[in-house]
């Protein structure tokens, strides 16, 4: 009996000592990892900035087939978030700010630990250096875990390293797998549509298009408006030098409707037009290649682009349909001026009356009286 008391006392003292040891450990931690990703900066930023892709590359999700992830209604940019429940624990992540095409700032809570998280994206000759940093505070239980597993630096560092490797492999295939095909001349029918028009930088086109498509789609559902096709963008102007475009993000509808004056959503009609059609299969970062190939086709075939607008992109399969950029399908239409066929000059055929000369009638000279 006395031995049991001693063993119990020893165990109690060990627990107290462990508690004191853990309590005296530093609760703050800073972890940072970086990696060169074999994809363009804009593509990497846009992919990471959308929480819909989080489960495709973050090791907390890729190593847990049973993880349950819940996304906010808006999954892109400031205010977006996700929560998860998995075998390694539960957590949530929220984007509090972004610097377009440059950096993302987030707040993370995971198993009682909170951290400020940042990711920065730097161009390196066509590739991207991604730097990922977390600075936070550990809860008591996580202190115990890290005390026997190499510390927060090792645990979080391992998650960062695996995730960055996953990101590189995923994007190397998804971003760089694409094809461009010029289909040739087509006739586009009359189309009724709802749209919002604005000016955007090239780097923000994808983000802005996604937001407006969601906005107009929700508007249609609330007002029982029938959507009759895939979303598309009309590029009214396309300034390559300054990388600016005036654009209308559009949703096709079955028939025209009347909207209240002052609405930022407009009801419009696209007149029938002839165009050169090009199909891009793959990520939007290859759009320039598709546009260049279309311009080459116009030049080779002596076709003149119509200046009514620059071009149209129809998202047959896009990011709202599937997360894999390699499977996106975008149709591009360049309006052209239809060649005017000159009519031959037709000389009217003379009638019989015109062919037979009329007898000459001489004026009678009156006789003198």
UniProtKB/TrEMBL annotation:
Compositional bias annotation for Basic and acidic residues: 355-369
Span list, region Disordered: 348-369
Entries under InterPro entries matching the protein: Reg_factor_effector_dom_sf, START-like_dom_sf
CDD domains in the record: SRPBCC_1
Protein's name according to its UniProt entry: SRPBCC family protein
């Amino acid at each position: 009996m006395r031995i049991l008391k001693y063993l119990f006392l020893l165990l109690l003292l060990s627990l107290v000592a462990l508690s004191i040891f853990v309590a005296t450990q530093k609760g703050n931690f800073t972890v940072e990892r970086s990696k060169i990703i074999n994809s363009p900066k804009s593509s990497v930023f846009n992919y990471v900035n959308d929480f819909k892709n989080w489960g495709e590359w973050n090791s907390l999700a890729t190593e847990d087939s049973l993880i349950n992830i819940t996304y906010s209604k808006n999954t892109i940019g400031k205010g977006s978030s996700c929560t998860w429940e998995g075998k390694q624990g539960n957590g949530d992540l929220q984007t509090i700010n972004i610097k377009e095409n440059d950096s993302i700032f987030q707040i993370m809570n995971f198993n009682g630990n909170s951290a400020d998280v940042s990711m920065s994206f730097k161009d390196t000759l066509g590739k991207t250096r991604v730097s990922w940093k977390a600075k936070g505070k550990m809860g008591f239980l996580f202190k115990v875990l890290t005390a026997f597993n190499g510390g927060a630096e090792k645990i979080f560092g391992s998650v960062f390293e695996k995730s960055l490797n996953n990101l590189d492999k995923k994007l190397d295939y998804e971003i760089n797998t694409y094809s461009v095909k010029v289909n040739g001349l087509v006739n586009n029918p009359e189309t009724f549509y709802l749209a919002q028009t604005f000016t955007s930088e090239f780097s923000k086109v994808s983000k802005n298009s996604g937001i407006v498509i969601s906005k107009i789609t929700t508007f249609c559902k609330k007002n029982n408006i029938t959507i009759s096709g895939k979303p598309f963008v009309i590029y009214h102007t396309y300034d390559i030098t300054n990388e600016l475009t005036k654009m209308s993000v559009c949703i096709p509808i079955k028939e025209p409707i009347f909207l209240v004056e002052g609405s930022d959503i407009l009801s419009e009609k696209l007149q029938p037009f002839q165009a050169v059609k090009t199909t891009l299969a793959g990520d939007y970062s290859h759009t320039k290649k598709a546009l260049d190939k279309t311009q080459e086709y116009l030049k080779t075939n002596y076709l003149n682009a119509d200046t009514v607008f620059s071009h149209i992109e129809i998202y047959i399969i896009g990011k709202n349909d599937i997360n894999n950029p390699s499977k996106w399908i975008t149709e591009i239409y360049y309006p052209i001026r239809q060649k005017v066929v000159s009519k031959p000059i037709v000389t009217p055929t003379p009638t019989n009356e015109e062919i037979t000369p009329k007898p000459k009638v001489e004026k009678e000279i009156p006789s003198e009286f």
